[in-house]
Amino acid sequence: ETLIEFRDVWKIYQMGEVQVDALKNVCIEIEHGEFTAIIGPSGSGKSTMMNLVGCLDVPSKGDIFLKSRNIADMTESDLSTLRGKTIGFVFQQYNLIPGMTALENVLLPLEIQEVEDDIALEKATEALELVGLSDKLSNRPSQLSGGQQQRVSIARSLACDPELILADEPTGALDSKTGRDVMGILYRLWKEKGKTIVMVTHDMDLAQYAARHIVLKDGMVVRDEINDNSSKNE
Ligand code: ADP
Ligand code: ADP
Q1: What's the 175 CA to ligand 1 centre distance in angstroms?
Q2: Ligand 2 pocket member 147 (CB < 6 A)
């Protein structure tokens, strides 16, 4: 089953007299187990596309299917439930709660999904272990480096066992070495744990970790291809 399908998707922003076609006639399918980078210069439509892939926004024209269901036919509350179970989000700025420890931050989405306490604790601990932070469970964000904070946010995105991890410029706030470490974690989650990952980046070096490149220019998909360099990361 295709995880996400865009069928002739347009996103048009109307600002007074001015109309911006942020996405034009985009057709893509994302399957389980893919590691995709969405690449393109500033203003090419990457964020717009991420918001649509994450079902945080709706298209102006065309259809988006999440697990074969047209999101246009779903109520906001059904969509929100399906999104919570299906997609984990990673942001450039981590979005961790400063007053909470690493463990508490990762427990949060499990509590929202009303997972039983002991199972939640098990899942959160496991997720933090996967990103190599077993020894930082009780550190608050301010007691962690930027790279470690991003690893906590990746652990949080993993907590509810999502089918898709959506990462928007996950290394944008990190220096290049730490950025590569974080990309290495995403790469292993894909390669070893079979996670489906879609990330946005404007950094071609970091895009090399991904096995598929979707390149946007002026709101159009100008390339959609396998990246053979991905396997060089082993
Ligand atoms: P990228 O993430 O690649 O930088 P965006 O998706 O943010 O590109 O933007 C694509 C185009 O849509 C740009 O021309 C941008 O100015 C425009 N745009 C994005 N969001 C909005 C908005 N909320 N209102 C109006 N125009 C927008
Ligand atoms: P990196 O080299 O990964 O960016 P840092 O140099 O920022 O990491 O931090 C090195 C170590 O110091 C990390 O293990 C981190 O947990 C710890 N550390 C960083 N900042 C603090 C802090 N404010 N309080 C306690 N420990 C910290």
Answers
A1: 26
A2: yes
